[in-house]
Amino acid sequence: MLEIARQPSPTACRLIVQNVPAQVWITKKPWRYGSPDWEFWIVRDGAPVRARGQFRLEIQSRLRAWLLQRYHLRLLTLSFDELLRVAKGDGRSVARDHPRMRGDGLL
Fold it and tell me: Which whole-number Å values give the CA distances from 30 to 36, 38, 39, 79, 105, in the listed order?
């Protein structure tokens, strides 16, 4: 469901969300306390937007369900680097190393 797509800059990358009825990707953003360090982008009317809406909620719901079913991970608790590891096929180690799974009591 997640695929890595390199951008023109060799250090930047996007996580493409597959199996959804639109062009959707996730990018890294500066971290702020209380929010994830990534954001969703959706192409709407030919332009990428970050706006919240019913369609974005539907796509996030699909990704949340996939992560929960496959790895027992919650989308909003994952960092961009952890999502990147999931996209690389290393989701089981993310689940094993995640604070929630270790019992650190962070959630």
Answer: 9, 8, 10, 11, 25
Span 35-65, pLDDT tens digits: 899 999 999 888 999 888 888 899 999 999 9
The residues spanned by each domain of the chain are 2-102
Question: Residue 14 forms beta bridges with which residues?
Answer: 5
CB 56 within 8 A of CB 42: yes
What φ, ψ does residue 42 adopt, rounded to 5°? Answer: -130, 135
Count how many Cα atoms sit within 13 Å of the Cα of residue 6 in the half-sphere of its side chain: 4
Tell whether pTM > 0.70.
yes
**CB atoms < 10 A from the CB of 71, how many?**
18
